[in-house]
Amino acid sequence: AERFLASVYSFVPREHSQRFVGNFNSGPWTGGSDEAEYLWGFVESNQINIGSWDVNSGFTKAFWRDYYKGIRNATFFIANIDNVTVDITDVQKRQYKAEARALRAIYYFYLFRIYGPVVLLGNDVIAVDAPFQELQLPRNSVDECIDYITSELDAAAVDLPVRPLNDANIARITKPIALGIKATALLYAASPLFNGNADFASLKNKDGKQLIPQSYDASKWTRAAAAYKDFINQFVPDVFDLYRVNRSNGSIDAFVSCRDAI
Fold first, then answer.
1. Range name among 44-48, 103-107, 122-126, 209-213 with the lowest pLDDT average
2. Which of 86, 89, 149, 249 is most buried, taking the most CB atoms under 10 A from its CB?
3. What is the spatial distance between Cα 183 and Cα 109, in angstroms, rounded to a whole number?
4. DSSP state letter for 169
5. Is 196 left (phi over 0), alpha (psi -120 to 50) or beta?
6. Which is more confidently placed, 254 or 59?
7. How many whole angstroms separate alpha carbon 45 and alpha carbon 51?
8. Longest dimension (CA), the chain
9. Which secondary structure element, helix H or strand E, spans residue 256, and what is its range?
10. Residue 184 class from Cβ within 10 Å (0-12 exposed, 13-18 middle, 19+ buried)?
């Protein structure tokens, strides 16, 4: 069971790497923006920088494929972890299930930030021998995707620790990670890209369902701000300090939290 949960984790991207290494898909975002420039010819971001990428480019396919693999593995784990009865406590089961649930939501968020509205599979694992027609699922709307991602992260956070248990568990999903990504997802939903963007008026499913809201909703900013404020209230400065005050003489004489500034 622990090895299977590790396989769910295996799709977490390495943001510091610009190449695909097995299932570690970091993508071209850093080198394809103003943050950095990679001069090596093998780096995927060069395809973007020189305008040679298209729908057949490898990195666009890999994200869709691998994140849905992670989603499937997480769903399968959640459905079966309670059947494990040897060398595991109920507390561990709840935490492991919460980790998988959070990871599944995070993978949906990673898909969302690349492709916009995507297909939500819910809590059912599609059979490996399912006919092709059962796999031709319509996209969900932006609001449906964001509501699912944020509600799943909220639910997972209940059974996640605030800090890792020890150094051996340092890379496990924690409550701040889940709620931090929840706030970021809400920020995406509030942004002009997805909040009343008329440029996407034609983006619809075959049945005519509108995928990106065409009416601007200011309350989405309020919801995002509340999520960030809640994060700050819960975890700053007890878990995180966001910045320090540097004095003109070069000394650092105080820690100041973002909550104090607000």
1. 44-48
2. 149
3. 11
4. G
5. left
6. 59
7. 10
8. 70
9. strand 252-256
10. middle
User: Which structure tokens are listed for 219?
Assistant: 């309350």
pLDDT at 154: 98
Gap between the terminal Cα atoms of the chain: 44
**pLDDT at position 23, please?**
41
Q: Are 98 and 160 in contact (CB under 8 A)?
A: yes
pLDDT higher than threshold 50 for residue 161: yes
Query: Alpha-carbon distance 79 to 82, whole Å?
Result: 7
Residue 124 DSSP one-character state: P
Nearest alpha carbon to residue 104 among 77, 81, 75: 75
Indicate the average pLDDT of the chain: 87
In the numeric block, the tokens 């080198």 are attached to: 31
Q: If pLDDT is split at 50, 70 and 90, which confidence band does 197 have?
A: very high
| Crossing angle for the helix pair 2-9 and 58-80, to the nearest 10 degrees | 150
Distances, alpha carbon 250 to alpha carbons 94, 243, 244, 246, in Å: 48, 15, 12, 6
